[in-house]
């Protein structure tokens, strides 16, 4: 029988550690990340550190939700779920953007998280300017890509569910994990009657297209030689 696939929201820092390895594995050949983190292939340990901090930022940012996908063999049964809780094979980061009351209800934040976010930014600056992982990053390329990504998000409707990251372990790809993680945000957008949006790598376009996402523009980088696809899925309410 097929393994049982479930989703849950990541609410502890302990769980982020395994996700950083999944992110590094899933994106090791990604053109965008290879452009602004060119040393990641030669120094995979630096790439894991980069994903650790990316996920910590998402964990502390208001309005963002990290979902983990876990698989468990069906022959373990209900009792087996306690002994063998399963293994995490993928994750997604969804963000509720906007300023309406519905958006604010998803964006609850706290002073403690804001303070932790400030300290995290200081730690990131130290790590990638002064510590060993600085050998792997191109700050100029990263800043350029960040500006283009901000512009891509700004080109979409203000009120959306935005897919910031979708990562599936390479050994688990093609098994419906990405589809289930994607569907979570689609369901939220359908409930609210607002679009869901994303910026797709070439690898993700077939999945997104199959779920109703349409191209609305391009995100160019590397002096225009490479690009990613800006996509939107309108709900049947809009």
From TrEMBL:
> What are the entry keywords?
Acyltransferase, Transferase
Pfam families for this protein = Acetyltransf_1
Q: Which residues form a coiled coil?
A: none
Write down what this protein is called. Acyl-CoA N-acyltransferase
Among SUPFAM superfamilies, the record links this protein to:
Acyl-CoA N-acyltransferases (Nat)
Keyword 4Fe-4S included in the entry's annotation: no
Which InterPro entries does the record associate with it?
Acyl_CoA_acyltransferase, GNAT_dom, Trichothecene_AcTrans
Q: Name one GO molecular function term.
A: acyltransferase activity, transferring groups other than amino-acyl groups
Every N-acetyltransferase domain range: 91-236
């Amino acid at each position: 029988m097929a393994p049982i696939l479930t989703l849950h929201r990541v609410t502890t820092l302990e769980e982020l550690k395994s996700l950083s390895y999944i992110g590094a594995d899933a994106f090791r050949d990604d053109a965008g990340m290879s452009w602004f983190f060119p040393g990641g292939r030669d120094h995979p340990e630096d790439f894991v550190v980069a994903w650790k901090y990316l996920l910590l930022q998402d964990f502390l940012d208001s309005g963002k939700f990290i979902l983990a996908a876990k698989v468990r063999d069906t022959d373990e049964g209900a009792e087996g779920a306690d002994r063998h809780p399963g293994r995490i094979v993928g994750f997604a980061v969804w963000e509720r953007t906007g300023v309406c009351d519905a958006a604010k209800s998803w964006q609850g934040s706290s002073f403690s998280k804001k303070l932790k976010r400030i300290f995290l930014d200081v730690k990131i600056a130290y790590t990638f300017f002064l510590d060993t992982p600085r050998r792997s990053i191109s700050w100029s390329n990263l800043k350029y890509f960040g500006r283009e990504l901000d512009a891509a998000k700004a080109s979409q409707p203000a009120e959306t569910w935005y897919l910031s990251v979708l990562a599936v372990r390479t050994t688990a790809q093609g098994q419906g994990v990405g589809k289930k993680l994607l569907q979570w945000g689609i369901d939220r957008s359908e409930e609210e009657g607002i679009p869901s949006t994303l910026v797709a790598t070439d690898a993700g376009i077939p999945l997104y297209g199959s779920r109703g996402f349409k191209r609305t523009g391009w995100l160019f980088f590397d002096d225009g030689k490479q690009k990613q696809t800006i996509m939107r899925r309108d709900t049947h309410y809009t």
